[in-house]
Each structure stands twice: as structure tokens, then as C-alpha cells.
Amino acid sequence: MKALAFNGSPNKEGNTYHAIKIVAAELEKKGIETEIVHVGSKVIRGCSACFECMKNKNEQCVFTGDEVNEWIQKMKLADGIILGSPVHYSAIGGTMKSFLDRSFFVTGFSDGMLRHKVGAAVVAVRRSGGLPAFEQLNNYLCYSEMLIPTSNYWNVIHGLMPGEALNDEEGVQIMRVLGKNMAWLMKLVENGKDKVVPPEIEEKCFMNFIR
User: Which residues pair with 36 in a beta bridge?
Assistant: First the structure.
């Protein structure tokens, strides 16, 4: 089994990275391989809502020149996905949002590519704004019908300088418990595939409020 983590921080080994590593350590204790993809330092344009991915249904965004389509295929092969971001103005980082908008739009029109995979969100923040950013990440997971493990508090860890978050004892525990619960849920999904029939996927119903 494999988990794929996306680090949305411009700092490759900042506090977002350390939060992900705590979760990943618990996954690896249970034999789940974890790969960390550094998104936050890349140049990624945002989604233009052209709907070409919906028309083509080829699991690709029409914009090339970056690694978004490569990462989409990595998501397809993963059993679990971790979305990690620092907090910028009580929200996730701009590069991370551009990546998530495009990739989750593509996967949403790709026959439920991420449906029933296990997905978790983690956030690193200096002081406040962590919960809005955490909720923002969870929106992508909920949209995709992913299964979301929980911890014993919201998945936010505090720190400013790289590695400082490791001094947040409660934050470290939150990430550790999340990792344990994520590993357990991934094992449940894997072991239940041949025993419990999943609900059939429904075609998305689109309803505009103004017609």
C-alpha cells in the first residue's frame, strides 16, 4: 500500500513538511510506503474552468508545462493522499490551490478516480488562521467522496521557523494520532474490498440556482 503526500509550502522542509513526516512515520510503521511531493516551490497556473477535462475524459488537464498531470497519475495509483499546506492570510498557499483546483477538477470528471481513497489534510501555521485553511483542504476531499480519518483535535500544528512546530507537543500528538488512524482506515479499506460491496457511483447532478 502507498500514501502520497503533497507539501504545499514554498519551504521544502518547513513546518508543513514536518507535520507530514509525523503522519508518514505512523503509516510507515504499518508497512505503508509514503512519498512526499513538493508542490509549493513550483510555478503552477490556476484552473481556467475551460471544462476540457470534462469533455476529453482523459485524466489530464489541457495546460502543460508543469507537473500537474504527472501528479494526477500518482494520485490514481495511491491508496491514501495527504494534503499539507502552510497558512497564508487564513488560507492555503496560492500554488497549492492552483494545483488542487486543476487536479481535483480533472479527477472529478474521471469516473470517481479518488472515490473511497483515504484522504487527510494537515496545516502548519504561526498563530491563527489554521482552521479556515484546514477546512479549505477538506473541501477537496469531500468533493471527491474520499474517506477522511480524524485525530483527537483539528489537524493544525503551530510554528514559525522550520522545525519549530516539533515543539508544539499537542500538535505533534495530533499528527501522530492522525497517522495511526489513517493507517488503520487504509487497512480497513484494503481488507474490506472483497468482503463489502461499495455503493454504486452516481452520475453527478448539476443544478444552478438561477435558471
Answer: 5
